[in-house]
Amino acid sequence: MFTKIMIPVDLAHAAKLAKALDVGAALAKLWSAPVTYVGVSAATPSSIAHTPKEFAAKLAAFAEAQATQHGITTYAHAMTSHDPTTDLDPTLMKAVDEVGADLVVMASHIPNLTDYIWPSNGGTLAGHSKASVMVVRA
To answer: Of 100, 94, 96, 105, which Cα lies nearest the Cα of 28?
Structure first.
C-alpha cells in the first residue's frame, strides 16, 4: 500500500517519540517499506550538535539504531534550516518530496490553546502534502 515512509524526528526529544517510532516501524514491516527519518537543525550550534555535519551523523546513527531495533530498512535525511522553529512546516514539506515519501508518520502532542490559533505541524502536512499523514498521539 505504501512504499516509502517518512518519520520526522526531533533528536532532542527522541524519548517522547517511542509510540510514533513503533507505529512507523510496524507499518514498514507490514508493507516492506523503508523508513526515512528526517531531522531539521539550524546551521548554528545546538544542544544536539555543533555543526550540520555532526547533526547528520547523529541522525544517521539514530536511523541505524532504529533499523537494528525493529529489523527494518532505514535512511536518514538531515535538513538545515535558518530557523527550524518557524521554518519547520515548509522544510518538512520539502523533505516529503525529496525522499519521495507516500506516508508520513509523526508524533503529536496534547492540544493546547495555541493549536486553536495556529495549525499543528501534522495538520499542516496533512492539509498540504501529497503524502498521507498519520499523526500518532503520544
So the answer is: 105
Q: Provide the residue type at 86 as one letter.
A: T
The burial class, CB within 10 Å (0-12 / 13-18 / 19+), for 59 is buried
Sheet with 103-107: strands ordered across: 74-81, 35-42, 5-8, 103-107, 132-136
The amino acid present at 128, given as its one-letter code, is H
Q: With beta carbons less than 8 A apart as the criterion, state whether 77 and 98 touch.
A: yes
Beta bridge partners of 135: 106
Question: How far apart are the C-alpha atoms of 72 and 82, rounded to whole Å?
Answer: 32
pTM above 0.85, yes or no: yes
- Per-residue pLDDT reduced to its tens digit, 51-109: 999 999 999 999 999 999 999 999 999 999 988 777 888 899 999 999 999 999 998 86
Host H or E run for residue 88: helix 84-99
Q: What is the 3-state secondary structure (H, E, C) of 91-114?
A: HHHHHHHHHCCCEEEEECCCCCHH
Residue length, the chain?
138
